[in-house]
Amino acid sequence: MGARSLTTVESHRAFEGEVRRYRHRSDTLDCDMGFACFLPPQALAGQKVPVLYWLSGLTCDDTNFITKAGAQRKLAERGIMVVCPDTSPRGCNLPGEDDSYDFGSGAGFYLTATTEHYRDHYKMDTYVTQELPQLVAEIQPHNTNQVGILGHSMGGLGALNLFLKNRNQYHSVSAFAPICNPTNCPWGRRAFEGYLGPDEAAWEAYDPVCLLRQTNLDDLPPILVSQGTADPFLEEHLHDWALPKHANIDVRREPGYDHSYYFISTFIDQHIDHHWRILQAGAANP
Amino acid sequence: MGARSLTTVESHRAFEGEVRRYRHRSDTLDCDMGFACFLPPQALAGQKVPVLYWLSGLTCDDTNFITKAGAQRKLAERGIMVVCPDTSPRGCNLPGEDDSYDFGSGAGFYLTATTEHYRDHYKMDTYVTQELPQLVAEIQPHNTNQVGILGHSMGGLGALNLFLKNRNQYHSVSAFAPICNPTNCPWGRRAFEGYLGPDEAAWEAYDPVCLLRQTNLDDLPPILVSQGTADPFLEEHLHDWALPKHANIDVRREPGYDHSYYFISTFIDQHIDHHWRILQAGAANP
């Protein structure tokens, strides 16, 4: 896969850095995909910088974070690159692909599907953890020992799962209003049945609460979770109370905040600094 | 006009303040309108706060600034309310209203139209300077001696015009990439012919460069204008070079920045602080 496989769609100067959107053919997903990134001024000046992967939620694409989270100011200050993939394969003409907001397009759940039709395209975990980093390396040499992952809602689920399953690849993690226990909520159960089939045992491989039960929590770096108390999806779908109680899992309930990017923009600086502190310490002790 | 005329469409906590969107029947424009605002925490706590009016550019509505400018952090820090009107009347079923992006819907140019059809609805200057402040006063008591106005592109033109024509109402002004000299650019000439008719003498009442020629520049507070050098509309439509050279008119050319909200978000903190300094000084000497 050469650099020529990437097409630059947009490029905008921001905070002395640059916002870019790319399109490319994805071998993993067998469709065309897009992603956005922000290169801080330090990267444009040739420095190797830390990278954060942002995973968006249901109905989003690669643009939501980069246009609405207000993160570039702090990313430029800290010298951190961010990469924002789309939330699913697109335009694969699968049965039911575009029928609802919580399954198919815009709802890839960052997993490898095993059901008929979907297994040929829906492999968002492999895309994010393997294909995308190769593309990012073409764009900008960066510190592979300083890589964090974070996300929102379905993307918070994705960030926790990919972090817990790829501990050598990701060094820090955080989440806004993640779907914590998808095997026990309607969004998760519907998606897992559609992508993984009726055997619920197979679903646990993509449930953060189940994965954390199999993890020595003392070995984890601090995990930051922000959750608004006025989030309309908290009771039915998000279930932050199901996360284990442990000193390394810092669940911050924020009074009055909802599920929107207004919530994310308010606390994104805290999350960037959370990653920055861990990644800086990791760089000092590679 | 009672408070019952306002309908709250959305409300979101942000930076300990609140983003709100309202709908209402506009007597001035004879149609339904929407606007957005941000109430900083100081306002929610009952303090009278300064108010900034943000005027958006072509194709925008009341949501662009509040979702993409990343201004709430600084507005909350300074304790300033922002109010964002829509850019034109909507849904009036006028001939040509929805045929192009630079005339009619989304392109009201903050003026009072005199041509057939449009004169019945297109009075965005009266709406912004008279009707909207009454609605804002219902939402939040504020300091009427601490009111600023700013905007982007067509809205930068609007901010400069409304400030220069209503010096007792607005105490500070700034603009991002304003259409400085609309009587001399295609966007302006097309809009002015459509709204004001062929008599070009009438157009000068809505041209910031013409208005500044009639103004004692020594009497003005400092005016801040930010203009990206990579703005694709600079040469044909914006013409910052036509603004008079004077110590009170600070035109900042920003290398590599374009016309997008990425540009606005980078420099919005500078603009908020520009207004804050002037409005603070005014409050000290009412």
From TrEMBL, chains A, B:
Subcellular location: Cytoplasm
Family to which the UniProt record says this protein belongs: Belongs to the esterase D family.
Record's GO cellular component terms: cytosol
Reaction catalyzed: S-formylglutathione + H2O = formate + glutathione + H(+)
Name under which the protein is recorded: S-formylglutathione hydrolase
This enzyme's EC code(s): 3.1.2.12
Main location: cytoplasm
GO biological process, one term: formaldehyde catabolic process
Alphabetic keyword roster: Cytoplasm, Hydrolase, Serine esterase
Gene3D superfamilies per the UniProt record, alphabetical: alpha/beta hydrolase
Single Gene Ontology MF annotation: carboxylic ester hydrolase activity
Active site: S153 (charge relay system), D231 (charge relay system), H259 (charge relay system)
Functional note: Serine hydrolase involved in the detoxification of formaldehyde.
Alphabetized InterPro entries for the sequence: AB_hydrolase_fold, Esterase-like, S-formylglutathione_hydrol
One Pfam family of this chain: Esterase
EC supergroup of this enzyme: hydrolase
SUPFAM superfamilies: alpha/beta-Hydrolases
